Amino acid sequence: MRRPALLAAGCFTALTLLGSAPVAGAQPGVPTPAVDASSPTRVVSVTMATDRRAVMSVFSSSMNREIQVQVLLPADRSVPRPSLYMLDGVSAGEESGYTESTWTQKTDAVSFFSDKAANIVLPVGGRGAYYADWAQPDPVLGVNKWETFLTSELPPLIDARFDGNGVNALMGLSMGAQGAMNLLTKHPDLYTGIAGFSGCYDNRSNETKNAVRATVGSTGGDATNMWGTNADPLWAENDPSTRVETLRGKQVYLSTGNGFPGPYEAGGGFGEEIIDALTVGGPLEAAANICTTGFADTLRAAGVPATIVFKPYGTHSWRYWQDEMHNSWPVVARALGL
What we know:
Elements: H1 3-18, E1 42-50, E2 53-60, E3 65-72, E4 81-87, H2 102-106, H3 109-112, E5 119-124, H4 146-162, E6 164-173, H5 175-186, E7 193-197, H6 206-217, H7 224-227, H8 233-237, E8 251-256, H9 272-302, E9 307-310, H10 318-327, H11 329-336
Parallel strand pairs: 4-5, 4-6, 6-7, 7-8, 8-9
Antiparallel strand pairs: 1-2, 2-3, 3-5
Helix pairs in contact: 1-6, 1-9
């Protein structure tokens, strides 16, 4: 995503969680094709980028288009294994031209998971979509039925093609953290746990709804096409904070920084990356801290156990998320039965 859009989204999101702000309007775009429900979801192709990295093209009947999914494979593929689904942030692969997940582009995920006995499933795409089923097509972002794709269409294909054992967990950051939590709390029988970094998990207030609108708006989309006006019941239907009981018995790891500079900003001069981390990543992470604090309070009030980490520093940026990918692994491993 281009820096001006990120800067605007970061400031807007922080402001909406601290006070009122206007709602993003619809953006012009091109028409999207109608969904052809008669075309079955299927694997179109699988190629091996390396001996441990599969690139799969899946035709999604719900979205009427092909979706790229990359899978990092374990060294030992002689026995069935669990699957970890890793969901991206708002750009969802845009930085690579949608040739790979930003997880593999910006972190050491390939090497880190190389000794883990699991399928690592990385959908590519879903920019600004919150991995949700949208109420209607968006002129800019098109048809989005990611909940259907990730919970109904894709898992059977992953298990069949890559010898999955039916055990699934989720990991997500920022937009993907909220999307992952929404998927788990709506489909608790499908997932055994979650790791969420720098996410918001509560759609109850207009401030948090407008923060979602700002995030979607930064990509040119309109969240009204996702969940309607702020008074629409769809917001409540996609609010993890109203379903925390579904997390009881799950493995849950949540973390956030607080927006202040940390070790990855120290001594970095004033290059564009550092400026972005401070002017964009600072406000965004401060907002994520507010969100995570509220959700942690909800979990605590319900008596639902979770591992929740509040760092005394940290911006909304990839080096911190790489650290959390590592730090959360013991919890994720328990969720996967490893």
